[in-house]
Amino acid sequence: MTANPHLVKFRNNSIKLIGELRHKKMIINDIAQFLHLSVTGALPYPQALINGGIAAVVGKQGRKYLYQFVGDETQITAFLDEMDAHHKAGISRMQQNRTKRRQNVAAGTPPPPPASTGIHIMEDDVYHAVKLHKAPAARDSLVAALFGAA
Could you tell me what percent of the chain has a pLDDT over 70? Predict the structure, then answer.
């Protein structure tokens, strides 16, 4: 069973951030710079630490929240254990879905349609919905005139 690299990175970055927050208060820009991430990419880290009771918002610096370490060793251990449990549950859920897909393919059952279809653009961190068309794909008349029929 291989570890999900994204979850491993999140865990390692969380540990690094806990160590840094022990020494100083930080705003999200400082956290992003420390973890070598964009501000948007760094947002889940302080939120996870707040939910785990390890960090807290202690004020504002301008319009940005100021985060500070407030936990102890038992909270850190519980936070990391919970993160590992979620990681293991995610892997087992993924394995169950993979097994179910293989059984459907073997039985000739078509896969279910996606719940929602869309495109996630990382630059602006926005999800754009895409409509599915029921008509079959056809060559545009101008393209057919230039390049011939398909």
Answer: 74
